[in-house]
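Section 3.1: Structural characterization of target chains.
Under the original work plan, the team committed to producing a structural model for every single-chain target entering the pipeline before any wet-lab resources were allocated. The record below documents one such target. The sequence was received from the expression subgroup and is listed exactly as submitted; it comprises 417 residues.
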Amino acid sequence: MHRVVVTGLGCVTPIGSTIEDVYSSLLSGTTGIGPFDSLPFLPDGVAPFGLRFTQMAQVRDFNPQAHLPSGTIAGSDRTSQFALVAARQAAQHSQFNQHYAPHRMAAVFGCSTGGRISEEAETAKLYTRNARPHPLTVIRTMANAGASHVSIDLGITGPVLTLSTACSSGTHAIGLAFQMVRSGMADAAIAGGHEAPLSYGFLRAWDSMRVVSATQCRPFSADRDGMTLGEGAAMFTLETLASAQARNAPIYAEIVGFGMSADATHITNPASSGAASAMRAALMDAASAPGAPSFESLLEQVGYINAHGTGTQANDSTEAAAIHDLFGPRASTIPISSTKSLHGHSIGATGAIEALITLLALYHGKLPATAGTLVVDPTLNLDVITRAPREATPQLALSNSLAFGGLNAVLALRPYA
């Protein structure tokens, strides 16, 4: 069983499209959530009516022409373009694809909605004008397009696949890639999540569920009123510790455990037992490594939780209950934050973006604040970090993803020393 470390990072997010910019936004509490006064992703002739909310987290500085050739742009949706740019950054940081045989590298991505913008634009033309869909519609909209484009771009011929588990997609993808490298199935992997779902139909559908904040996402706040939708991507390169050390690669953190579970109760109402089970599984997985501390010791070592924290009444109270179920009396003393108040909820990409932020928190010894939350809901009895980042050096951190469908995924990370 190999130890697995992160040697490359890449991102395209509403709070920055470089690692440096993302970290700067975390320190300053600069949010990527803002009003949408124009909706460039709407099909021609469609007016943005019927929405109760006016804000979301868009990647506002993304210009595909600055990164990709015209042929790739023509044949890809915005979500795949995010994946490509973020994956290139991660590969450049680590240079991993120059050190491993193509068939020994893997690419595992999470994406929930596929090429939603392209699909909606073409079906709108079809249904309103009986216009023939663009001949590249299929390859633009398939959910695995991002992984396939990255495979071609980086020359990866080993396992390449996309997972779709709603809001846990990115975390499931990183966890599976971690297991592949740890077991020796792959020598190295690039993994993460990408999503560009902000189409008019997507926004209207979420609006109908009445879970989107009419103002702005405020996780764990006493006055929270829902989530804020977003988009983006985050990617990691993973390899064994021994290989990374041998080639003197940069090491940002070590992934030590991965847990997953299903609530098996309700398609949208979360169950605290499922979330607690996934966190427990991640720590038990970490404890199973040769020479690792016991589960009980690892439970004591957890010094930060990057919560799923959507800002809805149901999620935040359920996640709080799960933390109390697992950690008992310690639950109220563990620093917790949800960074969705900065980058929004980007569905399949959100777990990867939050894993990136968790890693940066460990690497720099500064835990991000839950922006916008001024008064924490006292019924939750949690140590939610508010107003400003908190200096700390956790021995171990958890990054939680809790998805519709009751699908939960949790990563356990520790600083590399």
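The chain has one domain: 4-414.
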